[in-house]
User: Fold this.
Amino acid sequence: MWTFDNPPLAQLRERYGFTPTQDWLDHVRLASVRFSDGGSGAFVSPNGLVLTNHHVALTQLQKMSTPEKDYVRDGFYARTPREELKCPDLALDVLVQMEDVTARVNAAVRPGMSEREAFEARRAEIARIERESREATGLHSEVVTLYHGAEYWLYRYKRYTDVRLVFAPEQQIAFFGGDPDNFTYPRYCLDFALFRVYENGKPIRSEHYLKWNSRGASEGELVFVSGHPGRTSRWLTVAQLETLRDIVYPRTIKTLQHRLRALRQYAAQGPEPARQAAELIFSLENAVKAYVGEWNGLRDPALMAKKQREEEELRARLASRPEWQAEYGSAWAEIAAAEARYREQAVPLLYRSVRRSFSDLIEHALTLVRYATEVKKPDAERLDGFHDAQLEAVRFRVLSPAPIYPGLEEVLIAASLQESLEELGPNDPFIEAALGGRSPEVVARELVRGTRLADVAVRKALLNGGEEALAASPDPLIQWARRVDPILRQMQRWFEENVASVRQAAGAKIGRARFAVFGKSVYPDATFTLRLAYGTVRGYPMNGTQAPPKTTFYGLFDRAYGFDRKPPYHLPARVWERRHRLDLSTPLNFVSTCDITGGNSGSPVINRQGELVGVIFDGNIESLVGNFVYVEETNRAVAVHSAAILEALRKLYEAAPLADELEGKTSAARGASARGRRAR
Assistant:
């Protein structure tokens, strides 16, 4: 997962005899996009067309759907530009500039500062850098932490907020096999979707886009993945991994399962509740399976022994040089002490929380309350998320016109408060403030049925009205958020002072220690920033046999027949009725050794020529341990084949103009219409 400022040129040259040029790297970077609600994608035509996964598009599909038009279930195709649907709250980011600001951030820390003071000094300087960059360039600016604080980089993004849905298949073919097949291989999924980016009411002219290679990649071929992996934990200390293993993972999994039970009960009430809850159920099922796989990795004695050996070897290398030992040697003990403090306070830290509810109303209420408080402070003193450079994004989220479903909100809020009550007890300050002696169900009902925050106009008035408007508001949810916010802030301050500041300072020491020993021959942990991974198309040993490098449409129908077409192995009526049109030998999915993780969904798979040959949508079950260690022999990234997308568009969905646009052919009415709109 290499950053674009430090690509793996030596490794590529030595292993594959290929050295990408700077023009190649710049082109791939500028063709890659990041989705604000999670996931990756790429421009695939000069008319602003963006390819990603169906499951990345799922959040927007759900928000645009109604009981009468369910785009998740039925799919969507805009046959003309006029039919393309504007997404309610989706932003796409393109990384246009990178600048190393490590020296400036570290210069903000003066001798004699405590870890907490140093933490705040760095945060204040980061806020200044972001604000200055935003004011100077107009670009969305983020200072990203790499190598756990050994480096800080300023990333400047071109942000697009007018994004429109062009095409999505039915979820049943995009996620064929459902949760049982999730994180497995062989797979048979058409997990793709297409959006178009607009600016000033017109499709943008995307100079950097990936040309389509309809042949795809062959077995053994070198391929690349350019995307935004969310997070990995490969650089963490053994003490931190033990905290994850013993505290964070089991409790997170328990919370997700708790929410899933509540959501399934709600969905069982009828077709409309089921539709409302479908996207969140999908997301949480996916998260549970991923977290369980990662947790199993941490519970593997062999993995932990490997991490212990690596840590001991690095510390021994440092001990061999007195100057290294003096500068870096204390980091592991400092982190171990911070982890011990975290473990003592883990329960209140985890359950004095509102964001674990997954409630849109709770999120809006807390954001409004904090926004009004934070914007009155000097920028450098604000909570993260409310700095000047971030306020536009905050307003964009708060003013989203996406629908909010009161019944679903009640269930989510009640479930979250019930779990907190069980874990914290009735006398906890958070529980007293949140419940006031009443039951979670009663509080959730009163909050949801009494609030007007589902109305965008009400949220806008409160956002613009500031603290006075919030204080005067009779809205029960606003007053509830104002009541619990001081407790949430108190927990956040404790965490920053006792844990986060230590992790940051000591983690940076370990990062610099690795530089001292290994140089920049290593890549940083994933941080939802753009990365380049490489590998080859290759099967792998599995269950005593061999997993093939690719699957075909033959396999899709064979798997459906093998389960008598029963859910989740049934197919949409359109696919079943038109199956005879297909060339069943067309490759459908394929695997490569590229190193990916969550957040890479929707990433383009690219060949040496910079052409698109597929789109990432999953990893195999063996890849879940990749959060902590990458094993090339068995770790596989699963992608939709470029040929399958064209085959489906032309023969299943009668979307030849869209397929023509992907292949760069003329005669597409869509392209001509889009050009006409730009000319006007």
User: Anything to note?
Assistant: The longest helix spans residues 476-518. The radius of gyration is 25 Å.
